[in-house]
Amino acid sequence: IHDRDRHQMSARSALRALKRAVYRAIGYDDRNWLRVRQIEAFERFIASSDIKRAVEISPGWSARWSDLLAGRYEALHFPEFDICKDRRDARADLVIADQVLEHVPRPLDALRNIHAMLEPGGHALIATPFLFRVHARPFDFSRWTKDGLAELLVEAGFDRDDVQTFAWGNKACVKAHLGGPVRDYGLWRDMRNDPEYPIMVWAIARR
């Protein structure tokens, strides 16, 4: 990375931090309503883990995880880096695929490559929507329940005992996102979880 690019990245990171500070000061939460619990789960995992090298298979947004993992983070941007067929020989402690799996044509191949890119004992953080509109970037192929995602991870090579899957959603959040934009949590939105209306599904899987 050139010095100019580093400065630009640093400036963008500082601007995001300032924006979040202003939001916090007025009580406004700029996280996506449908992703709040998933983001919190990933943040807790990262904060509690000794991560030396992290890789994100990214569809284009990496700010949250790159900020948290500064100095230990690399982004491999899908679809330029095609996780269905490409893998890195150098292994990482952590591989993140956040809002990516629904966009790949062969998700089982993608997860097998993620498994191969992990150090023994390393973890994959996977998040993907379930009750959410089609959003082709450039394609949108698949949806999974938390049980379906668990089965896919096991088929990809993860041990069943080392796979944890979670889901969050409710009718209000589902209704708010039908045909509309992704909404900030903002202020006072409903955060109750209804297992019959999962809008976001995620997994923490250990190799």
Question: How would you explain this protein's 3D organization?
Answer:
The structure is a single chain. The protein has 207 residues and is α/β, with parallel strands linked by helices. Helix content is 33%, strand content 24%. The protein has helices at 3-26, 36-48, 63-68, 107-116, 146-155, 171-176; strands spanning 29-32, 54-58, 73-77, 92-98, 118-129, 163-168, 184-186, 200-206. A 6-stranded mixed beta sheet has the order 3-2-4-5-8-6, sandwiched between helices. Strand 4 (92-98), helix 4 and strand 5 form a beta-alpha-beta unit. The longest helix has 24 residues, at 3-26. The two termini are 30 Å apart. The model has no long low-confidence stretch (mean pLDDT 92).
Helix and strand topology:
Layout: H1 3-26, E1 29-32, H2 36-48, E2 54-58, H3 63-68, E3 73-77, E4 92-98, H4 107-116, E5 118-129, H5 146-155, E6 163-168, H6 171-176, E7 184-186, E8 200-206
Parallel strand pairs: 2-3, 2-4, 4-5
Antiparallel strand pairs: 1-7, 5-8, 6-8
